[in-house]
Amino acid sequence: MTDFISLPFYDLFHESGHVPGIREKLPSLLAGAQRSILEIGAGTGLITTSIADWTPAEIFALEPSAGMRGMLLSRLSARPELLKRVTVLPYDALSVDLDEPVEAMVMINVIYALDPHYRKRLWPVLATQLEPGGLLVFTWHDGGPPAPGPLKELDTRQVGRHTYTILSEITESDGERCKARYLYRITENDKVISEEEIVGNAYRPEWDVIEGELVSAGFVQTDAPEGLLAWRLGLQQF
């Protein structure tokens, strides 16, 4: 799995990027979860702490990246009332093994990082950790991977005298996979202070592929706001 975000850029761009939309759409889906929620790919905790504000449920925040976990724990330390309610899990999603099934699972901006083989193995694992009728929610963009294209600026932020800029290009595109190159650049005036390059594969499966995988794992689709997919485990039995 590839994480395309440079740690110093993560909160700076996500807080005013996709996060506000998720904070608007997700609460209604999680309204029924009062006991326990698993967040897969919790990152730095931008959504984790919001979930804690929306629901009294115990939260399991799974994040395999040590750097991301460090930022997540720093965020939790600033909210001492959450330290007994949020458990940070330091391993891969395929290794999750909770004491009891949770009521809901959330994955925000995670699907793109999962290669097809990993993804097919993941759904049955999640099904064992979710209670019957439990909810699985994740972000979704249909239409397959983007076509190859030149390096272009995606976004920029000003912090003091420095400008933080993200650039990207798609170098390959085949099936549901694309190979992307990201540059994370910090400049002062026209001088480059630092630049980090991240290259890796991202995945954008078509709808029928995702539907087939989830149905095979025992999930049934339910209503969700645009940009999200929601599924219930074994809903046909209830």
UniProtKB/TrEMBL annotation:
Keywords, A to Z, come to:
Methyltransferase, Transferase
Any one GO MF term held by the record is: methyltransferase activity
Which Gene3D superfamilies does its entry note?
Vaccinia Virus protein VP39
| Record-annotated Methyltransferase domain positions | 37-134
Q: What's one Pfam family here? A: Methyltransf_25
Superkingdom in the source lineage: Bacteria
Instruction: Look up the record and give one Gene Ontology term from the biological process aspect.
Output: methylation
InterPro entries documented for this protein: Methyltransf_25, SAM-dependent_MTases_sf
Which SUPFAM superfamilies does the record cross-reference, listed alphabetically?
S-adenosyl-L-methionine-dependent methyltransferases
Protein name in UniProt: Class I SAM-dependent methyltransferase
Q: What is the lineage of its organism?
A: Bacteria, Bacillati, Actinomycetota, Actinomycetes, Streptosporangiales
